Amino acid sequence: MHKLWIAAVVLVIVAVGSYFGYNKYQSTALIESTAPHVKETSLRTRVIIDLLTSPGSATFREMFEKSDETVKKIADTLFQLESQSSKANPEAMQSAIAYIKANQEITRTMLSSTRTRYESNNAASAMDEALADLKSSSGYSQTYARQRLERAVVQAKKLLEKSKNEIELAQSGIASLKNAHASASRFFPSEALLSSDSITALESHFRRGEEMLK
Fold it and tell me: CA of 69: how far to CAs of 47, 75, 104, 105, in Å?
């Protein structure tokens, strides 16, 4: 009877060890299968950050197209990960999804701010043209030029407020990205995540924008 009791205890210990061993294997497999998605997202976001923070590195059109593509690719990745139900390491999966979502949101903000900058450039050009026409015209033409200038000034003021709001959104988005980055770093290797240099460059870009608008 004593031997049977010992055998039963041994079987329980083996079973428990096997259970935890299998869970660890599943957890490791989950991280290994998810890491490429995290890394691809980081690389795509880094490209947009580089384009945004390096003047002259891309045209507005290139920036629009690349950003749109990145947002769509990240959406596909999120759909794929969110459709996977994993009990092995739910915290790792949640951190990956949160990190990828933070990348998606900051990319959307970068795209929006670039569109506003493009519109602002157009508004500035319209103001310059209307002002030049106002100085060189007379009579009806001068009245028309003045109306154009007034419309351009109104548009420029709207875009100024829009830029300020986008900078606030960007700063909030960067804070969320940093938090998600810290959480994801507990499970995924540093080479799969955005570098601190990229995040710092993004922070500096919007900080300069804020200072210019003061």
Answer: 12, 10, 11, 14
